[in-house]
Amino acid sequence: MINKPIWLKGIKKCNYPTLKSDIDTDILIIGGGITGISVAHFLKDEDLKVVLVEGKEIASSTTARTTGKLTYLQDGIYGKILDNYSIKDAKLYLKAQREAIDYVKNIIIENNIKCNFESNSSYLFTTSSLNIPKVKREKEFLEKEVTVKELDKLPINFPCKYAIRVDNTATFNSVKYVRELSKTLKNEIYEKTRITDIRNLEDGTFIAITDKNYKIKAKKIVLALHYPFFLFPYLFPFKTSIEKSFISASLTSNPKLFNAINLDKENHSIRYYSDDQNYIIYLTDSKALDKNMDNKKEFEKLIWSTKTNISKQIKYVWSNQDIMTNDSLPLIGEIEKNLYIGTGYNTWGMTNGTIAGKIIADLITNKDSDYKSLFDPKRDIKNLPTLMGYNLENMAAFSTSYVNKNKNFYSDNVKFVNEDGIDIGIYIDEKGKEHRVRNLCPHMKCKLMFNEVEKTWDCPCHGSRFDIDGNVVKGPATYSIKLDKRKK
């Protein structure tokens, strides 16, 4: 089986240039996933110069690791919003998700984008009788706005005690969609251009500095990053948690037009994908990042669960990380004057990333937005117990990274040493070559764990990832963990 997302299978790179000079722009969008490209799309008819930069390649990070669902049936999201806010807010969130699906449909039609888009139905189910009331609570809320059908089984043979179904949802290939959409833009797009710092100027504008020390002067900046690389002004690491999940793509001879997710502690997400062959996409075992660091063990669990419940013909496996907010609502909007953010999608990035693009574009152009207050990243803190739990998890992850109790799960190809006071991680590849890196995340100084399945150094605190030679694969870290030659 292949250790990468199926969405990258056979997909051509966009081959946008790397920034090699200082430039000025009206709007700088940092991040080339679904949020960043959506912002650029909704700004394309405005009389503004827009520049988008991506640290790697367009749609190669979080957007490439999704399950590719476009649905408003999102496990127990409406019950959570009702607990923290009001029925009006829950209805507004539902409206936003349905609107996002319509935006994607229309964008695909208008631009003739080939991305394996399929309209289908969504199921929310439970495998436990104890959780039937939670599913029914979602039904009671939803049926005031949409048609909901009750069922006692899924369209496939999978454990189910009770389920509900809604229509007018969809699935697609997220990488194809975002990359093809990027080609319709008139903006300047730069790949392999990582922003390492943002500085405020006295005139209210910004200077963004790249990893090659080029400067981008911008009037407004959009942080379309999965995880922002700064601590202030939002204190982001203290108000969110990261959840890690594991996903497989297996061959199937009987594809069906539906997608499903359950509402139980042990989660299961299912959808189908048809390209040159028919696949079933299966996600399971989502939990806090620091509790999912024995990657060999977790991938083995995924493979066992897939073969037991789904299909024995597994072709692709990969992992994903999602940012969870304490009140279950995304963080979309202005965090300080002329600085905007879209993140914290609570595992539902395809709809929330799309609606974030519209909201941020409206805010930039001083248009009204129905969702400005609901998703305001500066909103008052709700659900204090969850927030405290996130901070305890973050502190535990930091402490565990230093104690590093789990070294026993590594093979002999992974070693940790201290040389001249510097903690070093070593991976020995199949040819016997040593790859040595500094075992310290530049973001907030957590010690790193080695992912022997995907061959990356991973931060258990905030999700940064580095390749075997120390290059940044995924933020919030902006600097590599390469060893200085004098310290090798």
Describe the fold and architecture:
- With 488 residues, this protein is of the alpha+beta class.
- The protein has eight helices and 24 strands.
- Strands 3, 4, 5, 6, 11, 12, 13, 14 and 15 form a nine-stranded mixed beta sheet that branches. Strands 1, 2, 7, 8, 9, 10, 16 and 17 form an eight-stranded mixed beta sheet that branches. A four-stranded antiparallel beta sheet has the order 21-22-23-24, with no helix packed on it.
- A hairpin with a 6-residue loop joins strand 22 and strand 23 (465-466).
- Helix 1 packs parallel to helix 5, helix 1 runs parallel beside helix 7 (349-364) and helix 3 (87-111) crosses helix 7 (349-364).
- The model has no long low-confidence stretch (mean pLDDT 89).
